[in-house]
């Protein structure tokens, strides 16, 4: 039996309680890129503005991801299996490929993000660091949710405690909390731009929420753990980044710790932070390509891990811009899943094994293209533009095509009569 239930619903007997789901979701939100985004906000906003923007941004992210969490817990299905309902059997391959490919890309980038600074500080050969960390992270992702939970139980408190110690030192170096709140940025960031940075930092990865919370034992557990994880985990990463940037000019808390002389704690924090992120990325990529190939997720995790490890430095040096662009393609997928379940199907899906899926649902494909285009070119907050546009286009197209089909059917019946 596939214990990760790559191509079926997670049975209730294999569901997990609040604590396990909470640490897994916190591990997902402990993301180095969020600290860098926090650093960017910290240098461009006052501390009061920063707090309000982070809370508002994480509220938006929390609502988006908790909606997906509700669907996942109710159905027990991954993002990719849910995509079959909205996009069709073969149409879901588009969503799975985009989600899977971006996660393999970020896995490779994550390996390099660990190896490059550790090499600079310790002198250990870069490729030794990449290969060893790639093997270790791939091995843990191979064992699935159980390994993700164990890793998160270790990593989450370690990152939170060591990071908080470093932030405390940074605040002392600034002259205390009062000086932190008195900080005035030299070059300010507009509030709309700040909200864009906050929401955009995690909207893509948040689309993968169902891959993890489908294991939640209740819908309440799924929604609450997801919502709290974004408010605590993502806010903490942004705070670490902001304080570090204001104090030292560096956004990543591990880099701040290197400057503070906390070499070993810095390597621990950096390693665990990237490990939790990379494990989640590799796990999700395995589910995505399993939907396309029907090959067991664990085998695909090994293959994806090898590819990400081999191309780590190339991805790090050449592909981050493309990954960011591709990341803009992911939130419209989640938006279409939400619209299909809550608006068009009134919060109810038939069981997976009872469904006869359309090959491709073209309204979903067109809505995804429209959402992606809106995220790239409309003014405002790109991820929100993509989400809202995809929902509107999808719902309108489905209703119009269904009405047209109904009208044609009536005409055919009348002619037959």
UniProtKB/TrEMBL annotation:
It is a multi-pass membrane protein. It comes from the Bacteria. The keyword Endoplasmic reticulum does not apply. Its main location: membrane. It is found in: Membrane. InterPro entries: CodB, Pur-cyt_permease. The keyword Transmembrane applies. It holds the Pfam family Transp_cyt_pur. Keywords: Membrane, Transmembrane, Transmembrane helix. The chain crosses the membrane at residues 21-38, 50-72, 93-118, 124-143, 150-169, 189-209, 221-246, 258-277, 298-316, 322-344, 360-378, 384-401. Belongs to the purine-cytosine permease (2.A.39) family. This is Cytosine permease. It comes from Gracilibacillus marinus.
